[in-house]
Design a protein that fits this description.
The longest helix is centred in the middle third of the chain and has 17 residues. The chain is globular. α1 packs across α10. It contains 15 helices and 15 strands. With about 400 residues, the chain is α/β, with parallel strands linked by helices. The strands form three sheets. Strands 7-8-6-5-4-3-2-1-9 form a nine-stranded mixed β-sheet, with helices on both faces. It has a three-stranded antiparallel β-sheet with strand order 10-11-12, with no helix packed on it. A three-stranded antiparallel β-sheet has the order 13-15-14. Bound molecules: iron/sulfur cluster. Iron/sulfur cluster binds next to loops.
């Protein structure tokens, strides 16, 4: 791994720029690139949060100016996108006017394919009816709402700044505003959260008919407030067996309700509603990440921006790309990632595509392991694919190592 923001580094993104071409020359839907925009502001910090964000929103105007400048630095390397994802942080702390300005900067620097998926993550507390209507008008066509739970005690434990009632209203108001592609984020495995309580949250989510659900298991990082409370013995984390039970029951409940479990944490009401943007991360499609702490991938190279608004603004002020580190992936690393990422998706690994891409026969290399995994019920080998089963998805992070 090369880790450097030094522009003389041969692994720097500058060495990988390509000519800007017409949109039509880049219309292969499998290879159209994704644009991620990290909005690094939150009104308050959640107890478990490990994402990069600051709670002082006074820096928003300077950030927006810098973001527009950062776009100009990548217009040649990334000619066309068909997904835009506003993540964070909390993108909904911005006004609809500010989001509109960002989108217009995107359109003036890059080509956006027709029918691009444009997603915005929102906190229920920010999503009032007039804001939602404005978001629709400016072209946001997919909303991902950070509901996290329909149990107030859990929201309080997690330090979320919205209530259960605001979560429900945000979903209903989004429908009234015309959103037809709605995703909810939920968290399970919270200490003291019995399986029955989690199933109540899950069933309430199902009753609201979202097109997409992301169900994440709570991870407690040591440096977060929750991590420190855990270290002081305030609560115990669920055992591995219990976590496995939560995962299996979540998958079973949502599949019974008609959702496709298409990735470890993601469920869609049919693949038409699977996140087009996130799928790019899983199949090595190039993506550009703008804003502090955002990651990008292009031509076997990954780089990431400064995890600090101040350092990000300073770099842009010096007319430099705000890149903190870069890694160039070897063929072996790409192969291992393809295996690891493929086994996290329901689609799995296409044996022929893998051979074409890496000139390696994955069955010759790993056939014995796959047969053993199939015998143990973790994968199915059929029609030229290696698919993980539900039990395989539960253990997917370790399957590639077996
Ligand atoms: S809203 Fe999201 S990014 Fe902001 S503090 Fe909470 S978990 Fe972190």
């Amino acid at each position: 791994m090369v880790s450097s923001g030094d522009s003389s580094n041969p692994g720097s993104p500058d060495g990988f720029e390509q000519q800007r071409g017409s949109a039509s020359a880049h219309m292969n839907p499998r290879r159209l690139r994704g644009l991620y925009i990290h909005i690094p502001f939150c009104k308050s910090k959640c107890e478990y949060c490990d994402f990069y964000s600051v709670t002082s929103v006074s820096g928003i105007p300077d950030f927006l100016e810098a973001l527009a400048k950062e776009m100009t630095m990548y217009r040649d390397a990334f000619p066309c996108f068909d997904t835009v994802y506003f993540g964070g942080g909390t993108p909904s702390v911005l006004s609809s006017e500010q989001i509109k300005v960002i989108l217009s900067e995107v359109r003036s620097n890059f080509d956006l394919a027709p029918n691009s998926e444009i997603t915005l993550e929102g906190n229920p507390a920010d999503l009032d009816p007039s804001f939602l209507e404005s978001l629709r008008e400016i072209g946001i066509n997919r909303l991902n709402i950070g509901v996290q739970s329909f149990d107030q005690k859990i929201l309080d434990f997690l330090g979320r700044r919205h209530s259960v009632g605001q979560g429900v209203s945000a979903i209903e108001d989004s429908r009234r505003a015309g959103f037809r592609n709605l995703g909810l984020d939920l968290i399970y495995g919270v200490p003291g959260h019995e399986k029955a309580l989690w199933l109540e949250t899950l069933n309430q989510a199902i009753s609201l008919l979202p097109e997409h659900l992301s169900c994440y298991q709570l991870t407690v990082e040591p440096h977060t407030p929750l991590g420190k409370r855990c270290a002081h013995g305030e609560f115990l984390l669920p055992s591995e067996n219990l976590q496995y039970e939560f995962f299996m029951k979540t998958s079973e409940t949502l599949e019974d309700a008609g959702y496709v479990h298409y990735e470890v944490s993601n469920f869609a009401r049919g693949m038409a509603f699977a996140s087009r943007h996130n799928q790019k991360y899983w199949d090595h499609t190039p993506y550009l990440g703008l804003g502090p702490a955002a990651h990008s991938f292009l031509n076997n190279q990954r780089w990431w921006n400064h995890r600090s608004v101040d350092r990000y603004l300073s770099a842009i002020g010096r007319r430099e790309k705000p890149v903190e580190g870069t890694e160039v992936l070897s063929l072996e690393q790409l192969q291992l990632e393809a295996l690891y990422l493929g086994l996290r998706t329901k689609k799995g690994i296409c044996v022929r595509d893998y051979s074409t891409k890496y000139s390696r026969d994955i069955l010759a290399e790993r056939g014995k392991s796959f047969v053993e995994l199939q015998r143990r019920g973790f994968v199915v080998l059929e029609n030229g694919f290696v698919h993980p089963t539900r039990a395989g998805l539960a253990l997917s992070d370790s399957l590639a190592l077996i």
